[in-house]
Amino acid sequence: MDILRLNTAGSVDDGKSTLIGRLLFDTQSIPQDKLEAIAASSQRKGLDFVDLSLLTDGLIAEREQGITIDVAHVYFSTPTRKYIIADSPGHVEYTRNMVTGASTAQVSIILIDSRHGVVEQTYRHFFISTLLRIPKVLVCVNKMDLVNFSQDVFSNIVSDFYAFAEKIKFEGQIIDFIPVCSLHGDNIAKGSDRMPWYEGKTLLQELETTNLKENNDELPARMPVQYVVRPRTDEFHDYRGYAGKISSGIFKVGDTVTALPSEQTSVIKKIQKFESSLDEAHSKESVTLLLTDDIDISRGNMLVKKGQEPIAAKYIVAHVCWMAHEPLSIGKVYWLQHGNQLVKAKIDAIQHVIVPDTLEHQSATQLKLNDIAVLSLKLAHPIFADTFATNRSNGGFICVDPGTNNTVGVGFIEELYESVPVQEFAI
Amino acid sequence: MSVLSKRKFPRQLEDEAIYIIREVAAQFDRPALLFSGGKDSITLVRLAQKAFYPARIPFPLLHIDTGHNFPETIEFRDQLAKELHLNMEVRYVQDSINQGKVKEETGKYASRNALQTVTLLDAIEELKLDACIGGARRDEEKARAKERIFSVRDEFGQWDAKRQRPELFDILNGKINVGENVRVFPISNWTELDVWNYIREEGIGIPSVYYAHEREIIERDGMIWPYSEYLHTTPDEIVQRRVVRFRTVGDMTCTAAVESYANNIDGIIEEILSAVISERGARIDDKRSEAAMEKRKQEGYF
Prior knowledge:
The complex is a heterodimer of chains A (427) and B (302). Chain A has 427 residues and is α+β, with helices and mostly antiparallel strands. Chain A has three domains: 2-211, Rossmann fold (3-Layer(aba) Sandwich), CATH 3.40.50.300; 221-305, Elongation Factor Tu (Ef-tu), domain 3 (Beta Barrel), CATH 2.40.30.10; 313-417, Translation factors (Elongation Factor Tu (Ef-tu), domain 3, Beta Barrel), CATH 2.40.30. Chain A contains seven helices and 25 strands. In chain B, the strands form two sheets. Chain B has a six-stranded mixed beta sheet, with helices on both faces. A four-stranded antiparallel beta sheet of chain B has the order 8-7-9-10, with no helix packed on it. The mean pLDDT of chain B is 88. Chain B is α/β, with parallel strands linked by helices and 302 residues long. At the A-B interface, helix 2, helix 3, strand 2, helix 4 and strand 9 of A face helix 1 and helix 2 of B. Chain A: This is sulfate adenylyltransferase.
């Protein structure tokens, strides 16, 4: 049984909550009592239909204002797959929520209101989906009933979207378009006889047939060490296991591994998963590795396969999305957390801020909430990262404000250097 | 629907939960696992056992005993603690009542469910806990759907939905200020069915009240209430014997039973798949208002 993680994004009133409600409803994922509760609520509000959006609009403030404030997680299953939806709100000021919701997504669903077509928000949603290197984007053109199920309207939206998307989509990124009507369920889980001109898959068919292989196993093997297991009992007197979740690649018994930063090498003696021993372990698995030699390894270190070592980077260039009200400024020092490694990082330069709607570059001395920019950062200690484009699970980091301890930014690594490059970056 | 009953547990969820539990042990000085005796916290114990094997679980368990628990739950708790050599700390709501910190509710709907928040916050302070691992899941309830995996609470244990830290990738930021603590939810992404499938595949033991058994009950508001000395009944409420089981296990005064003959895990899973009532629909405490859970969370509830 595998898991598919989705992100949904749309502007206010595009009907995103209704679309999710419809997916749940048509896959029989809503228990009777919840359905009755929202039916009663809908009636109290004077609606003559069951407002499926009430399923996900959870917080008091949201119900009062009829909007979605924070990322909500919604679950449903089919016989083949478990789905986790991160439902991100569409407001401009909540860009950080979409980035949060999309950071683990394998599929991004972008909603467009057929009456309004592609709007500024749509560009932003696609830009973020691309920045986060989400391999598949499904564009749902919603409320087709309100444009008489017109194929022309749909085709125009497709070409408008493409005109923008082609400029930034990455190689291998899949974009598909589906005309839907969430309120009545057309092309969500069932097809639509009101749009015979559409011959593609329904949304659910698209999800069910999405290929999940992100080829993580083919990437260089990396395991950040989370915890050193030392039972100190008579039975396991000299036991020393390195516990962690493999971020990419495959580790096998007999593999020679390098510990970073010490660069000492050893051989994998045993791969343990609770009481069983494995011959090999794959990305995303939580395991405990035992080595033939006693070498110096502690939390925050990384085990990699010998010959596949990343560079010890003390200077990085990254896309950063700023998530705090308190602005980021040049020269300020933050905690940078990469995997489970924490290092001090100094903002060396803001190369430019990107306007997601137009892709225009602007110079800046500060980053405000929801800004996305290219920064260079100087690190107090080396990190062992890959670029985000080559290895999504080892190329991201967060920034933590040392004053408040809050998570204030997220970064996607573009370039890695062992030291400050000789040629300074010109703005 | 019954094709789903053959569904396997998605193993990725176990890897994710173990990763989270290991992060807690590594990032915090004094964590604890909040144990309720329910299936979700029993699942957490199993995950913690796996995370550190062959070492023992490197933190204590904390049970807030309301005094209104099912006796079967308490028996199960003590047996589990013995078997796994767990360090089980128990704090009692009765003590908080005796100290005058909380007042027993009165009337026919009286329950100690809300009172236990005070006992919990006191225990967190007394044991100087900086992280508490809980078994809440996002599919249970609308307010929980928005909670983070590392959920920062202030000195009063309060949850502020609008001030939540963004959580990105699988990176968990456990840095906190003095006086703050973190609630951690490793099985956030599991559904009720995932938990049951896991219990089935792993052969995990659970308290007997989850299986069909004969018990004294009363009917109230269209629900089946377990009869006990703690339940305040009115003269027209007649005690009957019925074969029932519990789908969720909280206090005897606020957990409704379902009529059932499911006496093994397969039977329970079949029943959940065909059930028309959601899990928390059997939690009388949630029915108090549409936003009952959100309000309790703001006050420091589990």
